[in-house]
Amino acid sequence: MAFQTEYEFVLPRGYVDEEGTLHRRGVMRLATAADEILPMRDPRVQSNPSYLSIILLARVITKLGDLHMIDTRTVEGLFTADLAYLQSLYRQVNEGDGTMLKACCPKCDHDFEVDMSFQTMTSGA
């Protein structure tokens, strides 16, 4: 199983561009440390901490319909239902919510799921 770094989504309402075209399908990538840290220097975040989510989403949304570029103006133009959806998706993919793996007990063959959220792998040295 390959490590997933991009996640497709469909907005509940959709973004309407200047020409009136509706864009609903998009792709969000995993955030990096820089995505979380660099916006803190932005004057818009310093004067209004709520603006951080706008900048974060503009950095990690790599595709939205046929748009050539996604920037803060694009995210500002989203309907509130779509903004809430994307904020939730961001938390889910970056904070590890719902990272369940199927497992099988080697002794009794019982199938079960293990929540791997925020767990670290260690190597046997």
Total strands: the figure is 5
Major beta sheet summary: 3 strands, antiparallel
Gyration radius from CA atoms, angstroms:
18 Å
Work out the count of structural domains: 1
| Morphology | globular
Q: How many helices does DSSP assign? A: 5
Can you write the helix and strand succession as a string? EEHHHEHHEE
> What share of residues are in beta strands?
25-35%
- Share in helix: 25-40%
Architecture overview:
This is Tail assembly chaperone E/41/14-like protein. By secondary structure, this protein is of the alpha+beta class. It has one domain (6-98). It has 5 helices and 5 strands; from the N terminus they run ββαααβααββ. The strands form 2 sheets. A 3-stranded antiparallel sheet has the order 1-2-3. Strands 4-5 form a two-stranded antiparallel sheet. β1 (6-16) and β2 form a beta hairpin. The two termini are 24 Å apart. Mean pLDDT is 88; it is low at 118-125.
Topology readout:
Elements (H helix, E strand, L loop, with lengths): L5 E11 L5 E8 L3 H5 L5 H5 L4 H9 E4 L7 H5 L3 H16 L4 E5 L6 E5 L10
Antiparallel strand pairs: 1-2, 2-3, 4-5
